[in-house]
Amino acid sequence: MFKGITRLLNFGEHLKSLHPDNGQAVTTTPRIIPRTEHPISRQHISDAALKVLYRLDSAGFDAYLVGGCIRDALLGKMPKDFDVATSATPEEVRDLFRNSRMIGRRFRIVHVRFGRETIEVTTFRGKPQEEHADHIARQSDAGLLLRDNVWGNIEEDARRRDFTINALYYSIADCSLHDFANGVQDMETRTLRLIGDPETRYREDPVRMLRAVRFAAKLDFTLDPITEAPIYDLAPLLLQIPPARLFDEVLKLFMAGHGLMTFRMLSHYDLFGMLFPEAEEAMADAAWVEDLIEAALANTDRRIAEGRPVTPAFLLAAFLWAPAAARQAELKQNGMPDVPAMQTATQQVISRQLHHVSIPKRFGMPVRDIWELQARLGKRQGKRAFQTREHPRFRAAYDLLLLREQAGEIPAGLGDWWTAFQQGDEHEKRRLLSKVGSDPASQGKRRKRPRKRKPRPRVEE
Ligand code: ATP
Ligand code: MG
């Protein structure tokens, strides 16, 4: 960690006097901030990232750190991962590193692995021309970038990055910082500003709207008004994005410790409903739904702050609980019994959700379990409470139950019972169970075993 941001901010003041423009245009001559005038040093860079940078450099390529790692280091945070930008093509990068592989079709990059750390290496992007083949550069009629694999130089690369603060490059050759878009100034004023014309940039890639909200919430930055204005109208463009890409983005939005703030901002810009339309509808129907979602996000943020494990399954279960419960109620009204009604509702809600944000099976299965356990938590007689307690998703299901009570969907009581049951010794557990018998609300209906028919004796005539 370092205190250098103050020095950098002073430098920003100095820059402002030199360049009073609005910061959205990319200059072909960057402001080069020498190593003595910015706070980033090798100390902030992981060994793996340094290895990648040095090897590219000694093979004669340009190599820079760019993006989140530089941004976070300037803000005094330890970078969590490292993105490298280089003049080497993906093939050249792959040939330099045995431990590497090329990924992505729309946006081809190379992942270089060192143990558990992966360094993302991206070739400088250039401006697509008419003559480029479809697999290199392709744009839909509406402006969406379907392929973005034209190589270019560093200035062109800077122009194609999203925000000014994400277009700061740290050169491994002389440890200087290259600022093409007044990113330093925007760091100083904590402003999130898109490079270029915002509407065009959102149409090229609507995920940039989510990224705008994510960075604003995470860094406590303000969206520049020109960057902010088109979002309300363009939010529906997110419907064009493949659900698998949106799932990756959802993880970054809600699992990085600022989920509640991010959710509020997404809702404000009408973006949340593009990701979870049924949750959005349910929020309009009943007040407790939003309280439940907010409480789940606050819970996840708290756990992350405390360094405790979190799973996206819990959040997804909370986001989609209201639509699942409403669907179950409908099916029950049509005469379907409890358990199959829950199973059918689960199936329907999840499969509709998959059109928007995909949910990999490893998270979809636990979501189902957490929902199905909601009914089982009410049925505690005999050995049932002990069995439910042993279920691998018990803890998440119990947490959801507490939030449902807290949000006012159901009356309080059952949650406290389970809290006491988990904490109590054997004697206390028995005592709690004995109370269950006299409480008709908590009794589960006994499942009738289908009676085995005795084979009819053959009557010989
Ligand atoms: P973090 O890793 O903390 O989420 P980041 O800014 O590093 O933030 P990445 O997704 O790792 O985000 O991307 C690295 C860099 O690549 C960004 O800083 C930005 O310069 C560029 N970039 C990423 N996604 C886009 C995009 N959709 N459009 C334009 N540039 C992008
Ligand atoms: Mg990054």
Explain the overall architecture.
- It is a single chain.
- The protein is of the alpha+beta class and 461 residues long.
- The protein has two domains: 5-204, Beta Polymerase, domain 2 (2-Layer Sandwich), CATH 3.30.460; 268-434, Orthogonal Bundle (cca-adding enzyme, domain 2), CATH 1.10.3090.10.
- Helices cover 50% and strands 10% of the residues.
- The protein has 23 helices and twelve strands.
- The chain has helices at 5-18, 47-58, 68-74, 90-96, 154-159, 183-188, 198-204, 207-219, 225-228, 231-234, 243-254, 259-268, 272-275, 277-285, 287-305, 312-319, 321-333, 338-353, 361-376, 384-390, 394-407, 414-423, 426-437, and strands spanning 31-33, 63-66, 83-86, 100-103, 109-114, 117-123, 137-139, 145-148, 168-171, 177-179, 191-192, 222-223.
- The strands form three sheets. The protein has an eight-stranded mixed beta sheet. A two-stranded antiparallel ribbon has the order 7-8. The protein has a two-stranded parallel ribbon with strand order 11-12.
- Strand 9 (168-171) and strand 10 (177-179) form a beta hairpin.
- Helix 8 packs across helix 12 (259-268).
- The longest helix is centred in the middle third of the chain and has 19 residues, at 287-305.
What's the CATH class label of the largest domain?
Answer: Alpha Beta
Count, helices: 23
Q: How many angstroms does the end-to-end distance come to?
A: 96 Å
- Biggest sheet character: 8 strands, mixed
What is the count of distinct domains?
Answer: 2
Globally, the shape reads elongated
Low-confidence stretches: 1-7, 11-23, 439-448
Amount of helix: 40-55%
**Ligand species:** adenosine-5'-triphosphate, magnesium ion
CATH superfamily of the largest domain: Beta Polymerase, domain 2
**Beta-strand percentage range:** 5-15%
Radius of gyration: 27 Å
What quaternary form is this? single chain
Named at the architecture level, the CATH assignment of the largest domain is 2-Layer Sandwich
The count of DSSP E runs of length 2 or more, i.e. the number of strands, is 12
Label the structural class: alpha+beta
Q: For the residues shown, what is the average pLDDT?
A: 89
**Within the largest sheet, what's the order of strands?**
1-10-9-2-3-6-5-4
CATH topology of the largest domain: Beta Polymerase, domain 2
